[in-house]
């Protein structure tokens, strides 16, 4: 079954999140320049540049260990790179200024690969964690209502609110993680391999959910994936990490033609051909 997703890739949503830079303003929502990340002798990134534009879904791909997660962590300020500039929503992500750091945190939602839910809290309590941190003055009943709204937005039934993560399927846990990532209505969403571990039907449903939410909420999405179907189904542009940097960043049909051994193997190797055949079937 080919994945069918509402709204075509490359068609950015009409309405952007109010905190997003205006489209056409020339201002990216994430700007990375000259990024260097090293672990001891190992150089992961060396002079990496990347722009993420308002309202797009950008897919980040690359071989295992090319530094996709390290890049995401550096952008989110969860890791201090050795060199480079990183701006998020016009703010310096490498600042020591606590107010700016908090503003970035407040405006970015993250779905980590394993969902990263607190196992001893229910789904509803997990979603309320960021609400408590940033809106501690809200009455409990309103926080509960907001958590319920996010859980429904993420496509979970209302009764999931009172379940522990261990009582959910893998796909439902991803949706619960997504609900928490959306708790504060961020303009910018980071997803680390959201469809990993899901069966093809569950993965296709998750792709649809991401596209629908991105269009409805005017989100910009930074999406790390190995999933070719996701790239074709929902990504407006694809950035390929190789040789310690972004070697190409463009709409997928341009990336497919890019002359680089990893790109050619990934997009034209046996697995890619199988995915292509599935799409054409
Ligand atoms: N805290 C750390 N300490 C030492 N090395 C690290 C650390 N975090 C990441 N690395 C190394 O940096 C490299 C890039 O890791 P990263 O997790 O970003 O890769 P990735 O592209 O996301 O890989 P995958 O597709 O397998 O998830 C790897 O070689 C990894 O071992």
UniProtKB/TrEMBL annotation:
What keywords sit in the KW lines? ATP-binding, Nucleotide-binding, Transport
Q: Where is this region: Disordered?
A: 1-20
Q: Which Pfam families match?
A: ABC_tran
GO terms, molecular function: ATP binding; ATP hydrolysis activity
What are the ABC transporter domain coordinates in residue numbering? 30-268
Gene3D superfamilies the UniProt entry points to: P-loop containing nucleotide triphosphate hydrolases (3.40.50.300)
Reading the lineage from the top rank, the first entry is Bacteria
Name of the protein this chain belongs to: ABC transporter ATP-binding protein
Protein species of origin = Lysobacter soli
The opening ranks of the lineage are:
Bacteria, Pseudomonadati, Pseudomonadota, Gammaproteobacteria, Lysobacterales
């Amino acid at each position: 079954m080919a994945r069918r997703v509402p709204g075509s890739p490359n068609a950015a949503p009409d309405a952007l999140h109010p905190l997003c830079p205006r489209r056409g303003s020339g201002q990216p929502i994430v700007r990375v320049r000259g990024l260097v990340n090293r672990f001891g002798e190992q150089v992961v990134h060396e002079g990496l540049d990347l722009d993420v534009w308002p309202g797009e879904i950008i897919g980040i791909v690359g071989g295992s260990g090319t530094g996709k997660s390290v890049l995401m962590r550096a952008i989110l300020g969860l890791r201090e790179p050795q060199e480079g500039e990183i701006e998020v929503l016009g703010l310096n992500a490498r600042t020591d200024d606590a107010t700016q750091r908090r503003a970035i945190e407040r405006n970015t939602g993250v779905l980590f690969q394993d969902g990263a839910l607190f196992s001893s809290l229910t789904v509803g309590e997990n979603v309320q964690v960021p609400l408590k941190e940033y809106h501690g003055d809200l009455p409990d009943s309103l926080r509960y209502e907001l958590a319920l709204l996010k859980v429904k937005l993420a496509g979970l039934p209302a009764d999931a609110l009172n379940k522990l993560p261990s009582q959910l399927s893998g796909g439902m846990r991803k949706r619960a993680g997504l609900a928490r990532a959306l708790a504060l209505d961020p303009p910018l969403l980071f997803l680390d391999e959201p469809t990993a571990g899901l069966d093809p039907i569950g993965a296709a449903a998750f792709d649809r959910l991401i596209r629908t939410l991105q269009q409805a909420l005017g989100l910009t999405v930074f999406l790390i994936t190995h999933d070719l179907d996701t790239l074709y189904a929902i990504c407006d542009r694809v950035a390929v990490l190789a040789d310690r940097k972004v070697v190409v960043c463009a709409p997928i049909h341009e990336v497919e033609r890019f002359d680089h051994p990893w790109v050619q193997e990934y997009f034209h190797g046996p697995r890619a051909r199988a995915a292509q055949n599935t799409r054409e079937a």
